[in-house]
Design goal:
Nucleotidyltransferase, domain 5, alpha/beta, 13 strands, globular, 332 residues, 5-stranded mixed β-sheet
């Protein structure tokens, strides 16, 4: 337990995304991520009711699942997720928007999880580039006095503050147009044959239990299955290119991802004259490696709060912000 939290009532924070729902308490004692793909009809309300069993004093929520394609629009997604959260908890539920707990338009709640993290970090670390790599996306939030990122995912994409690249769910072909195998440059098939999680699993950089998403083919999460999927990315069986060929693809994916991230970070760091990066998420290690390439200082949140909190930081941040917020300023 972090010292400041002793004596506080239990405040729960939730980050409800399209693929994962994450929960944390303001005291740091709970940090959990549940793979919950909304587009597949995952039981969001049931999971939220499970968290309601903790009987929190209050709940802070950030929403990022409004883009799941089970919804016809962001507005429909926000309303559906809000309704699920409000019906699950008997305690007060407070939603954080891109400008905080005080918001007027529900559209301000769309994709706002980065905002809770940045608001907390601006108080605790000052000027920095906050980089959070999850399973699907990477946020790059410049902070100078206050968070300077755009308010919508569309504008963050346009400005390079959101990179649709994560440590697990990204299709290989989205990162690596071609791979060098036995001296040949081989284009990758434009199919969802393999994902980044396969590359990291095959290289021994993540364990099976860290492969926290569906496999592209519905098969296993063991190393042999990952190698088969890597070979399939170039329309081959593992017998055709061998384990060495599959591992060559995996290593090139890893290198490509690191350099793509470094390029995105360099753009933000130069534009905002920042020399320090605060890293969070399951991709902390690759963020650190990118910082080394750029000569930037890197502060890993896992070393401060622990790995579990780092990996679900927006949920923890919204819980902390709610715990510090006067009741009169909280929004529902």
């Amino acid at each position: 337990m972090v010292p400041w939290a002793i004596g506080l009532s239990m405040i729960l924070g939730l980050d409800i995304g399209g693929a994962n729902t994450k929960a944390a308490t303001a005291d740091g004692m709970l940090a959990e991520s549940v793979y919950l793909p909304l587009w597949k009809g995952a039981p969001l309300e049931e999971v939220l009711q499970g968290f309601a069993g903790l009987k929190p004093e209050a709940v802070g929520v950030v929403i990022t699942g409004e883009l799941a394609d089970c919804f016809q629009s962001k507005s429909e997604g926000i309303e559906s997720i809000r309704s699920a959260a409000l019906s699950a908890f008997r305690s007060p539920v407070h939603f954080w928007g891109v400008s905080g707990f005080s918001w007027g338009d529900p559209k301000d709640l769309a994709g706002a999880n980065w905002s809770s993290s940045a608001a907390l970090l601006s108080k605790e670390f000052g000027d920095c580039l906050f980089v959070d790599m999850g399973s699907t996306t990477t946020d790059l939030i410049p902070i100078r006095g206050k968070p300077l990122a755009a308010k919508t995912d569309y504008m963050r994409l346009a400005r390079g503050e959101l990179v649709y690249m994560g440590l697990l769910r990204t299709a290989l072909v989205a990162l690596l147009p071609e791979a060098r195998i036995r001296g040949d440059a081989v284009p990758l098939a434009s199919e969802l044959f393999s994902i980044v999680a396969d590359a990291y699993l095959a290289l021994g950089l993540i364990s099976q239990d860290r492969y926290a998403c569906d496999t592209p083919d519905g098969a296993g999460k063991d190393r042999d299955a990952a190698l088969r999927r890597l070979a399939r990315a170039v329309c081959a069986d593992i017998e055709e290119i061998g384990e060495a060929g599959a591992l060559a693809i995996a290593e090139q994916v890893r290198e490509r991802q690191k350099w793509l991230l470094a390029g995105a970070m360099e753009k933000q760091a130069k534009e905002h004259s920042l020399v320090r990066v605060v890293a969070a998420g399951i991709g902390e290690k690759i963020i650190y490696e990118a910082c080394s390439l750029l000569g930037l200082e890197c502060i890993s949140l896992s070393r401060i709060y622990g790995t579990k909190i780092s990996e679900i930081f927006p949920a923890y941040a919204v819980a902390r912000l709610l715990a510090d917020q006067p009741d009169s300023e909280q929004g529902t």
